[in-house]
Amino acid sequence: MSQMNETTICPCDTGKAYDGCCGRWHWGRPAPTAVALMRSRYSAFALGLEDYLLDTWHPTTRPATVDLDPDTVWTGLRIDARTDGKAWDQEGTVGFTASFTSPDGKGELREVSRFFFDDGRWYYLDGTY
């Protein structure tokens, strides 16, 4: 993981310090909402936290491994839409656009992700592009 400290701005584009934003979820506290989990997963992609991505992927859809491309640099996140996914819900969706650069140039990934609350934690279930 790159050098992150209490004053480093979180990669998820909230403008908050990493420690008070996605860092706490990366260090083991469960994200309280689907949007918080979505943001923390984006930050995990940006920081290369493959174990966190697997740990927050629902067991019914989780792949055996996550192999991040070290040449892809995630440069921005925008939350486009959301349904449910609050602390009292069982399911939620988050539509987002994630910007990146790669050896092929600049691009965007658009997805509507589904999240499921199970055993006291939010999990990423799957997504459609």
TrEMBL record:
<dbReference type="InterPro" id="IPR032710">
    <property type="entry name" value="NTF2-like_dom_sf"/>
</dbReference>
<protein>
    <recommendedName>
        <fullName>UPF0225 protein SAMN02745244_02721</fullName>
    </recommendedName>
</protein>
<feature type="domain" description="YchJ-like middle NTF2-like">
    <location>
        <begin position="33"/>
        <end position="127"/>
    </location>
</feature>
<dbReference type="Pfam" id="PF17775">
    <property type="entry name" value="YchJ_M-like"/>
</dbReference>
<dbReference type="InterPro" id="IPR023006">
    <property type="entry name" value="YchJ-like"/>
</dbReference>
<dbReference type="InterPro" id="IPR048469">
    <property type="entry name" value="YchJ-like_M"/>
</dbReference>
<comment type="similarity">
    <text>Belongs to the UPF0225 family.</text>
</comment>
